[in-house]
Amino acid sequence: MALKSGRKRQPSRSRRPQIFKNPKAAFALALIFMDALLVALIIAYVPYTKIDWDAYMSQVTGFLGGERDYTNLKGDTGPLVYPAGFLYIYSAIRFITGGEVYPAQILFGILYIINLSIVIFIYVKTEVLPWWALILLSLSKRVHSIFVLRLFNDCFAMTLLHAALAMLLYQKWHLGLILFSGAVSIKMNVLLYAPPLLLLMLKAMNIYGVISALACAALVQILVGLPFLVSHPIAYISRAFNLGRVFIHFWSVNFKFIPEPVFVSKQFAISLLIAHLGLLAAFAHYKWCRHEGGLFKFLHSKATSALSSSSSSGLKILKEEHIMTTLFAGNFIGIVCARSLHYQFYSCLSEYIKEGKCSM
């Protein structure tokens, strides 16, 4: 009797898209769709809030007119204090919209949905929130206002930052650093993420990988600022990256109870800087490097491995929860120690800042 050739045919299985196998992901898609409708209604029926748009357009007009001296780029709200990436972004917006608010609102509405999608992706992938808590990400009146009613540059900076965080979840450190540097080139407050990000890089890569990633980030800043660095380097660096700028006491959120003479003093600024660095060191030692025996033991081991020829060349995979917890907590520490900030630019969920089971 002849043997039948070939493998036994397996019963067919329904192949649904992977997204429908995860109820939380399906709910996230529905949430994004509903929020898109809400954004459309806001643009159509809620009056635009005139704050910085005219100033942005004035600064962009000077740049497009050939001005490369940052001291001469000004608007209704004062001199330009953002890095050059801001000028490129808003020059493109001016070209697309003709400087008109309504088409710009549509553009920012699309940007809002992109940013919301990235943020929801981060929370879904790290699985630290129940499905219903995702609703909180789209219920913020403040965030909707920032994007589609005020058209602030924070929108582009934070979207690029969140894209960088998403890349870090896939251990794409070099690409993440490039996107992070792009966000910094739009607004400098993104640098609050830099200390915890550097620590994570040291944990994930050897010293040579860290240096090459930092070089990529530095190259982005050089290329973005090149027209200004070539012509008026001191004016550009001093205006776009002014770390010593004294903010108005009226805008303070954390320290409005401090008398204004103390608030604007150099001693108070130094005290806040020491507190900021101290909190970062404490969190790094007792929380973020707990499994390595503390911050100092971890840094010593990295220095030893860098000096030895047996330094590992591969990537060390970090847990997604650990990456996000470290970055969000580090940024929150920076906000707490900020002498002044525009409080309307900040909203957060506390889930990543709570003490949890996250480990390396």
Automatic annotation (TrEMBL):
Broad class of where this protein is predominantly found: endoplasmic reticulum
Name of the gene this protein is made from: LOC105132014
Catalytic activity as recorded in UniProt: an alpha-D-Man-(1->2)-alpha-D-Man-(1->2)-alpha-D-Man-(1->3)-[alpha-D-Man-(1->6)]-beta-D-Man-(1->4)-beta-D-GlcNAc-(1->4)-alpha-D-GlcNAc-diphospho-di-trans,poly-cis-dolichol + a di-trans,poly-cis-dolichyl beta-D-mannosyl phosphate = an alpha-D-Man-(1->2)-alpha-D-Man-(1->2)-alpha-D-Man-(1->3)-[alpha-D-Man-(1->3)-alpha-D-Man-(1->6)]-beta-D-Man-(1->4)-beta-D-GlcNAc-(1->4)-alpha-D-GlcNAc-diphospho-di-trans,poly-cis-dolichol + a di-trans,poly-cis-dolichyl phosphate + H(+)
Spans traversing the lipid bilayer: 25-48, 104-124, 144-170, 177-195, 207-229, 267-286
Name the UniProt record assigns to this protein: dolichyl-P-Man:Man5GlcNAc2-PP-dolichol alpha-1,3-mannosyltransferase
Entry GO MF terms: dol-P-Man:Man(5)GlcNAc(2)-PP-Dol alpha-1,3-mannosyltransferase activity
Cellular component annotations (GO), alphabetically ordered: endoplasmic reticulum membrane
EC number: 2.4.1.258
The organism of origin for this protein: Populus euphratica
Localisation: Endoplasmic reticulum membrane
Keyword S-adenosyl-L-methionine carried by entry: no
Pathway: Protein modification; protein glycosylation
Coiled-coil residue spans: none
Assigned keywords, A-Z: Endoplasmic reticulum, Glycosyltransferase, Membrane, Transferase, Transmembrane, Transmembrane helix
Membrane topology: Multi-pass membrane protein
InterPro entries: Glycosyltransferase_ALG3
